Amino acid sequence: MISTTLGFIHTSATLVPVFQQLAAAQLAGVETFHISDDSLIKDVIRRNELTPLTAKRVAQHVASAEEAGANYILVTCSSIGRAVEAAALNAKVPVLRVDQPMADAAVQIGRRIGVIATLPTTLDPTADLIRRRATAAERDVQITERLCQGAFAALMSGDAATHDAAVAAALRELSSSCDVVVLAQASMARVADALSPSEKPAPVLSSPGLAIKYLASVLLDS
């Protein structure tokens, strides 16, 4: 059997252990390596958009991962998703944006989809992806977006309690009015896990676990 090497590209080094643990548990026999460059997400946040120059640098990281021996690449940041899709068109190996399996799962669960984020640069790309994946699946969806204002800044300043309270409030609200709730950032998953079932009656989806589950279905022998 030809060995499989999965290359991860991150915009935060904090995600390396998250995906290492998931891969160790679900991708037995798959070799992995990680590339991390937090300047990518810092540029997106500073400029409040994904610029052509940043997109070019994403493509360069994808090319580097391919040159390093990856025969599958996962990019773990939703904010640069459009750049990932563009880079995939020129890559010789499959390249996956981390939130695509989550978007596909959401459109299969229900019509009313809630999307929560703490950054507009993540909210917009995630909602856009869900709309496009719904169209591809011939599903009619209604998306409700919620931006937790100030939550990201609070988290970055060390005030996790304020961040968590804002995210929890949005989760309670959308979970009571939507068929499924999508977390645009993986960092919010622990807040969802802390809520009781009665506080989140609708399924709540986060991208890391679903992405690795999808890769297991693709990379491992059936």
Q: What does this molecule look like?
A:
The structure is a single chain. The chain is α/β, with parallel strands linked by helices and 222 residues long. It has two domains: 5-98, Rossmann fold (3-Layer(aba) Sandwich); 100-206, Rossmann fold (3-Layer(aba) Sandwich), CATH 3.40.50.1860. Helix content is 53%, strand content 17%. It has ten helices and eight strands. It has a four-stranded parallel sheet with strand order 2-1-3-4, sandwiched between helices. Helix 1 packs parallel to helix 10, helix 3 packs across helix 4 and helix 5 (100-109) crosses helix 10. The longest helix is centred in the last third of the chain and has 18 residues, at 160-177. It is globular, with a radius of gyration of 17 Å. The model has no long low-confidence stretch (mean pLDDT 93).
Count of strand segments: 8
Taken in chain order, the helices and strands follow as EHEHHEHEHEHEHHEHEH
**Structural domains: how many:** 2
Radius of gyration: 17 Å
- Measured by DSSP, the beta-strand proportion falls in 15-25%
Major beta sheet summary: 4 strands, parallel
Low-confidence stretches: none
Query: Helix content range of the residues, please?
Result: 40-55%
CATH class of the largest domain: Alpha Beta
Q: Distance between termini?
A: 13 Å
Shape designation: globular
Instruction: State the helix count.
Output: 10
Average pLDDT taken over every residue: 93
Within the CATH hierarchy, at the fold level, what is the topology of the largest domain?
Answer: Rossmann fold
